[in-house]
Amino acid sequence: MSTPEAIRTQILALVKEYHTAKFAPKTFDPDKDLVHYAGRVFDAEEIVNLVDAGLDFYLTANRYAERFEAEFAEYLGLSNALLVNSGSSANLVALTALTSPKLKDRRLKPGDEVITTACGFPTTLNPILQNQLVPVFVDVNLGDYTAIPERLCTAIGPKTKAVMMAHTMGVPFHLDTVTDLVKKHNLWLIEDNCDALGSTYTMKSGDMNRIRQNSVSCPQISPRLTGTFGHLSTFSFYPAHHITLGEGGCVATDDDDLARIARSIRDWGRDCYCAGGESNTCGKRFSQQFGTLPYGYDHKYVYSHIGYNLKVTDMQAAVGCAQLRKLDQFIARRKKNFRKLTEILKPYADRLILPRATESSDPSWFGYVITVKDQAGFTRNDLTTFLETNHIETRNLFSGNLLCHPAYQSIPHRISGDLTNTNFIMNNTFFIGVYPGIDDKRLNYIKAVFNRFMAGERVS
């Protein structure tokens, strides 16, 4: 009789054969196939890992989740990476962690202000509102779509306690300005790095290596990954992002105290920090006093936060472990596709604002953002309709202006200055893909379609 281990080996070998048969490369047919704006890129390794985790039938977070968290933290050079079920949940966990009573005088309280942008994805804003904090909106630059540094400086008020912004479309926001403000005003910083895994920034004024200690180390001249500058950072592993777990996200931090709070928020709000299946890590499971509970109440059932259950399954983490091994090549392909698209569209820079990096940054591009100029002779919708009709997917730059959406009509907020560029983006900006699934044949097709449009062809 075969052993379980031998059967597993046979199953996984068949999974590899299945991948070859099911997902064999296909020739691109522009008459039938979409040029997607984003998508999953994988090989047999992801499916083998997925089935391997399924055969364990542990289901909840287990060995693959522990492995991914360790390897991802090592990639970032941080001490803690906490898997959650989405990038949106990562934002919720990170911001909510800063409201913890365990932070004492530094905790965020209802009515405190958080600087952010109205041009972005809603789940950067939502946790601010869900925690009864007040967003302060600043306008963004055209071209790099990150917060205007001067606007950040004037946005600070007596109630400002934190900055929470995204590195939009993979472009790092001006970290020299932001980290200087964080230090000067004793603010919290959360980097929404969901679009920017692999992006780097080189500090000019010095490396805020330990912002929480309000100390600046010696000037740094080498690039550093975004997601490592803030007190907390967040990541998304949705299929559109740089790597995927299907659904999934992560909170990262170099602060062990913040990591413990974030883990509590993620895991029902419990005070206990034992790993799954373990007990009494603290050695004081039945010998502590909490609130008005009886002395010695089981620490595994003590709750210090109003939390959630936002963990991943081990099957998701198994896919992530395979994806993480491919991250460097994925990033390289995104950068190559970005350069090629710039070559293709540079002749039309008189009518289009092409994307650019912020000074001192090297983006790991999420997409190729295009803004149609006022005097272009056509509208964004003219161009996107033509592209979509010709099977090239487009997406607007997320919300445009979040304050114009039904959900945000009556939210408490403050605007520092105006949102002129944000509103322009809402009407004139979109993006197409740079993800690794776009090959040279698809790039050449994109070139041909843009050339036809710029020559005057339109959808009848």
List keywords for this structure.
460 residues, alpha/beta, Aspartate Aminotransferase, domain 2, eight-stranded mixed β-sheet, 13 helices, flat
Overall geometry? flat
Please provide the count of β strands: 15
Oligomer classification: single chain
Helix and strand content put the structural class at: alpha/beta
The helix fraction, in percent, is: 25-40%
Named at the architecture level, the CATH assignment is 3-Layer(aba) Sandwich
CATH topology: Aspartate Aminotransferase, domain 2
* Count of distinct structural domains: 1
Would you give an account of this structure?
With 460 residues, the protein is α/β, with parallel strands linked by helices. The chain has a single domain, classed as Type I PLP-dependent aspartate aminotransferase-like (Major domain) (Aspartate Aminotransferase, domain 2, 3-Layer(aba) Sandwich). Helices cover 35% and strands 13% of the residues. It has 13 helices and 15 strands. The strands form three sheets. The protein has an eight-stranded mixed sheet, sandwiched between helices. It has a four-stranded antiparallel sheet with strand order 10-12-15-13. A three-stranded antiparallel sheet has the order 7-6-11, with no helix packed on it. It is flat, with a radius of gyration of 23 Å.
